[in-house]
Design a protein that fits this description.
The protein is mostly helical. Helices cover about 70% and strands about 0% of the residues. The longest helix has about 45 residues. It starts with about 25 loop residues before the first helix and ends with a helix.
Length: about 400
């Protein structure tokens, strides 16, 4: 409508923050960096120290290089095949059924990993900040926050990570620099070595870096799709530098024999480092916030894309791809219905319940985290890496 005083055109639908369901390459880079760093920095050092010692640095580099190659393979596949739409790719009934099965399997695998990350979050908060009696409250609160985030969509979640990025990275770098004064370089020696152990270290490292394969889901929503893969490569390189720095510091402080027996050594390292002036009595509790937000970012992404894959696998019609809302809408109500489709809360609640029950089962049968490191992330991650190739074969026939 036109203003009576100036005659300027005022668009009533204009908002300061765009709701076009598009994210920038910079936002992808920051989100992937947080998601890659959180779980890897907590779980990789004990595993690598127990199998490779100081050679774990080489295993990290090999795993990151493999993940970088994998991202480019995903890029080539996504250019030839639309992984989100069954109706476009499946030209026959059998093909569509097989593709739906693969989508459901992918969604189930992502939800299994989401349940494992939720379990890690609960254990981290329980052991470092609270007590065992708050376990149920932590689990329920985190699950409710994840399900609520599904209703807000992709853009709101990514914007939060973009703002938090520097508030998390800068304190982390400062703490790592201060921790360097406690490092003993004489611990950086090869004490034991086996080809089998080094191969296991490379594979586990590759699986953790392969979280960057989430670019397969990010790319359709990127405002500049050609730069999405480059952003993923930058994230892998930055996280590799941080992982190597953390690993060398941990070995230099604890030695590989002790490091392999610790649960969350990087959190314990924060208690060893003393800030000048003693501003914080427990800076380890303060630094838990870094891993909390990084793990929650990964948990939310796995829950978000797991629920999307299940919806696309079960829905009878071609799913609404929120990333392609460029068509003109007849009115504002139609725009609002497309951004927040009716009934979207129910699939989120169902998926959130599945993830909650999975994390609860892990807490009830709790064992050392190292055993679950082999059982859940490695086996489920291996399956998820194979499924897109199978999906591509059926989609191209």
């Amino acid at each position: 409508m036109k203003s009576e005083d100036t005659g300027d055109v005022f668009d009533a639908s204009h908002t300061i923050f765009s709701q076009n369901h598009k994210i920038s390459p910079r936002q992808i880079r920051r989100a992937l960096t947080m998601e890659l760093f959180g779980a890897g920095s907590l779980l990789l050092p004990p595993c690598l120290a127990g199998t490779s010692g100081i050679l774990g640095v080489a295993a990290l580099c090999i795993g990151a290089a493999g993940a970088w190659v994998l991202v480019h393979i995903w890029d080539c596949l996504s250019e030839r095949c639309d992984f989100e739409s069954v109706e476009q790719n499946g030209h026959g009934t059998v093909n569509r059924i097989i593709q739906r099965i693969l989508l459901v399997m992918s969604g189930a695998g992502l939800l299994v990993l989401a349940g494992y990350v939720l379990y890690l979050l609960t254990v981290l908060l329980r052991d470092q900040l609270l007590t065992a009696r708050y376990e149920a409250a932590i689990l329920l609160t985190l699950t409710a926050a994840g399900v609520f985030g599904l209703r807000k969509g992709l853009e709101s979640r990514i914007r939060v990570y973009e703002v938090l990025f520097w508030f998390l990275i800068v304190p982390l770098v400062i703490m790592l620099i201060l921790a360097c004064f406690s490092v003993h370089p004489r611990y950086w020696t090869i004490t034991s070595y086996s080809v089998q152990g080094f191969g296991k270290s490379c594979w586990v490292s590759f699986l953790f870096f392969s979280i960057s394969s989430l670019i397969l889901f990010f790319k359709p929503h990127c405002s500049v799709p050609k730069r999405a893969v480059k952003s993923a490569g930058c994230s892998i390189f930055l996280v590799l530098v941080l992982h190597v720095a953390v690993y060398l510091i941990l070995i230099g402080v604890f030695q590989d024999s002790l490091l392999s027996r610790l649960q969350f050594p990087v959190i314990l390292l924060m208690a060893v480092v003393k800030l000048p002036g003693n501003f914080f009595e427990r800076q380890d509790a303060f630094m838990v916030g870094i891993w909390f937000f990084c793990l929650f970012a990964l948990f939310h992404s796995l829950l978000f894309y797991g629920s999307k894959a299940l919806q696309n696998g079960f829905c009878r019609k071609k799913p609404d791809r929120s990333g392609l809302n460029d068509q003109k809408l007849p009115d504002e109500n139609s725009r609002e219905r497309m951004q927040k489709p009716a009934g979207a809360l129910l699939p989120g609640v169902i998926c959130g319940t599945i993830v909650f029950l999975g994390a609860l089962w892990l807490l009830c049968h709790e064992q050392p985290v190292g055993s679950y490191l082999v059982m859940l992330p490695c086996l489920t991650g291996s399956l998820l890496l194979v499924l897109p190739f199978v999906y591509y074969v059926f989609a191209r026939k």
